[in-house]
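histidine kinase
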Amino acid sequence: MEEHAPSQHAIIPVEGPSVDPDLPRLHLKIMAEAAERLLAADDSARMVDELFALIRSELRLDVFFNYRLEQDRLVLEAHAGLTEEQAAAGAELALGQAVCGCAARERRRYHVTGVQASDDPLVAFVKQVGLDAYACTPLVYGGELIGTLGFGRRWADRFSDDEISLLHTLCHYVALAKHRLQLEQDLRAGIEQRERLLNELNHRVRNALQLAVSMVRLEAASEADRACAAALARVGDRIEVIAAAHRPIYAADDLRTVEVAELLRAVSTGLKTSTVRVIGAPRTTLPIEQGVAFALLIHTILTLGCPSGEPASIEIVGDASTATVDVIVKGLNMQADLLGGRFQRAFLRQLSASAASDAGAVTITLPVRSDER
């Protein structure tokens, strides 16, 4: 490009640091307020609108353009000071097209002066908008191009060095804020995708278990031998417990653990022989691979201890001195061997737990940490 006199048109790449330590005090105040707002922003386009409203009067600005990079094109995300026709005309830019496209392609800041005196096709759009001075900054974070942000004025043919420094610094803040918002959006999308997959998996597991329950029930109903039919019925009950235990497992926020109280509520809800209350429930978790064993252990104790549908209750008590949690099942008929069966012993081993019975209650001591001890 040819050299231009100061009063003539020039497209000036801006080099050097974006922050001038000698900025006027008012500019520093604007930077501080802008940084605070951008840190709290939750909408990418609206935050630039609010930034423009903050600095428009002080810098006597007329227009801003905020472009977002989409693949190899710039898409106008937010703007002010344009008519609908002008916004439509500048809705998309190729990299290298117009001032913003050049700033994006070259990742360089530009200060365009004396626009109305220029016939350079590169400034045709900002000239048509009526600007006479324009400053454009590529929005870059960690080497990644996010888009561009430019500000223009119609009443003077240039910005001062202090104004250029302030605008470029604010654009740097905007790039940081946009990067943060994109990370948050990606995180939310990942969480939503995980939840969709978990819901689908839970639905399929539940359907498969329910099919297994139905098949076992049919076999039990057609079995002439009463002892065999009773054994099949118990198998069906246990599969139903496994299905009930999967609900809190898949609903857990932490995929490594499941809450003990939620497991107990799931088991008691599906219990056919008794009404169970879960009381005194601090937030206590088990490793997720132990969840089904715990649910089956509680179901077995309740089935044997409340054969006629007597009401029972379960209390969860944390013990900070021993780093254990006691799950106390009360209201049981102690005539049955509630803890001596091979299933109960196997479940206790899997849980690394101990158990004791006394005065109509069974206490299971789990080596887990309660968050509320």
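thats it. The longest strand covers residues 144-153. Residues 244 and 266 are 6 Å apart (CA to CA). bye
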